[in-house]
Input
Amino acid sequence: MVLNPEQLVFLKELNQDVDSLVEGLQIGHADLSTAIYRIFKLLQQRIEAEVFYIETQDESLNNRVFCFGNADENIKRTTPQLLKVDKSITFNTSKQTWFVQPLEMAGSNIGTIAIAFAPEKAPEKGMGLEILDCVSEELDNFFFSIYTNRLKHSIIMGLQSALKNHSIVDSIDGAAYVLKKEVPFERMIILYTDRELTGEENFNYLIYQGSERVNDSFNLPLESLDKFLKEKESPLSANPDELKIILNTGNLTISYLLDGLIEEQLIGKVIFVPEEGADFSIFCREIIQVFTEALRQRLVDFNRERNALRKFFPDKVINKLTSEINYEKVYLNPRFEEIGIIFADISGFTRMSEQILKTPERITQLVDHWSNMILEQVFPLGACLDKLVGDCIIFLFGPPFYDFTPEQIVEKTLTASEIIVDCTRKFLRMPENLEIQKHPDFEKFGVAIGTNYCPSVVGLIGPNDDLTAFSSGMNITARLQGLAKADQVLVTERIYDIAMKIGKWKFEGPSSAPVKNVEKPLVYHQLIIK
Output
């Protein structure tokens, strides 16, 4: 339809009025329902519209029908089905003339908009649809806001769903795929840290070219970044210029991942390299912010989970455990199993503490250094740490997978015992322990060890869900450790019998000792240490 000059002037004035109204509503942060109602009142005044109808999603992304005015009862009963259209139409009811068209945003149908008049007040078909177009265009900013909210909500749900994957690497892979659909990045680099039980800090990274992971610190290393992480004292604190050189790029957007609100600790960073000639819009930056916050929480949970497991297991075991969704139920629930046990206690520690070390700080330093040395050497054998009680360290062999044979468990238990003796000897002779070496009883200082292979109940037990074992065999092992002198390893008959079949070790004995509340004496052998 070709509009005459009068109609064109009218549409221009109507457009100005609606534009001015919508602008005021946006400044006042009016919601969609208020905006539609106010526009209806304007249309009612200017063109005597009887009904203003919109079906779309509201700010909460819920489907809603907004219908203001004197709508035909039949229309009210049959909406929204009646007015769902894919093109502009007009139709008449017994009391009203309707002009209807789809609402579109970014090529997608987001609902329906309609105006109804009394038949005698209705404009010509072409004019009516022009009026509808005018109003619809002025509401675009409201609809665009809802559209972006809908899109953002969809992306957030996709990111959250991806990051729920039990594997931290797989979860970030999924998030990268979701992100790349809306954020124009060429590369994404994620650096994050986790700390081992011994205090060593590990730095991991994942590098994506688009949505595809092309490098990582596990299987696909990037030589320049590996070298940088090893040489840099605090890699996460590296300034952007250093990272630009390492990553061979001139444009970076960096988001920092922090653990804690009061005492902030940097646990990672996300680095985006935009596509060539592009930059990130406000919408993209909001999506990146949502992603980094979700990733921050995922890494906090990741570190919390791993730190809880690091009280008992080395990283290699933790990686295998956490690769299974129900690992706690499958491997860590209490169960009855045969396990290897080591009780290792520093001989003469009380005298050492009272006469030499004296201060709590020095005593703590000695125990920390000694126990960390032991852990570093014994963990690779497949041991798990039951607990450290004062200067006594307790290891179990078997948990959490129980896939060792009796011979393997005994071999690991005795090998670990030899390592603990050797480590303790070297530790006490270190320069930092010079005052201990000067003590007249230095030769009596060492480590006393009791070992056993026996059935026990093992699993996460107690109010703190600590991994531990309990059985009469644990008590016997503690008794053996109490009988041992410096650098002695005492073993039960069960250990001795299996070790003799293996044929790698020699023993002295047997010897025996009474056990409280047990009729028969405890028979044991002493491992000959080379």
About this structure: Residues 325-527 form a domain with the Alpha-Beta Plaits fold (CATH 3.30.70.1230). The mean pLDDT is 89.
